[in-house]
């Protein structure tokens, strides 16, 4: 498939009630392993890619390294690749669009794009984030590629008290609608695990809703019944792999 075909195929995999499942990767080796396991598409996790290179999350990883990593994956595996691009390394709409173009130039067909102010406080105002999405959409449309913008809100991830999540749903729905109008293709709500709240957002969203698996989250079949269109695993696969590596290494060194 060429890049346009991959982008179209990726978008078509997002179906409410029949979600695409993305077991997040961080390099070409993990991309090959997940592809061989039967994945229909690939997605990186920003935390995992950064950690694999010795950096903390939050755009601490140099963007040049991220672009190189994305290229190594698209060179190695012929599947659609979406990159977790955090805040696109720029608060400025045109700067964000230019940075996304660098990923597109190495074959990437989609991004996660969050509304958290990276290395700052809180979330961008709705219209400010919508303006950034519009700029990315216009740039991608200019390349005539149906690039998939998975518009992420950090409302729930930023609130550790799960009892307060119900009070954030209306704002989340408002943000989802604004992001859809600006050109978003998906709506990502990491941190949200309450089935009733997930179902409410799925019912209100014109975009396929992305839920991230974490402790306490419903299983894949339940999320599908709630209307979710995309399920991802975030840093979970990396953490699991590193824990297994440490356990095996500890077992070896304990014998010395």
Report on this model:
By secondary structure, the protein is an alpha/beta fold. It is built from 10 helices and 8 strands. It has helices at residues 3-12, 28-36, 46-52, 63-76, 93-104, 126-142, 169-182, 195-204, 220-226, 236-253, and strands spanning 20-22, 42-43, 81-84, 110-114, 148-152, 186-188, 209-212, 230-232. An 8-stranded parallel beta sheet has the order 1-8-7-6-5-4-3-2. Strand 4 (110-114), helix 6 (126-142) and strand 5 form a beta-alpha-beta unit. 46% of the residues are buried. The mean pLDDT is 98.
Helix and strand string, N-terminal first?
A: HEHEHHEHEHEHEHEHEH
Number of helices, counting only DSSP H or I runs of 4 residues or more: 10
Mean pLDDT: 98
Structural class: alpha/beta
Topology:
Layout lengths: L2 H10 L7 E3 L5 H9 L5 E2 L2 H7 L10 H14 L4 E4 L8 H12 L5 E5 L11 H17 L5 E5 L16 H14 L3 E3 L6 H10 L4 E4 L7 H7 L3 E3 L3 H18 L3
Parallel strand pairs: 1-8, 2-3, 3-4, 4-5, 5-6, 6-7, 7-8
Helix pairs in contact: 2-4, 5-6, 6-7
Task: State the main characteristics.
eight-stranded parallel beta sheet, globular, 256 residues, 10 helices
Structure in a nutshell:
This protein is of the alpha/beta class and 256 residues long. The chain has ten helices and eight strands.
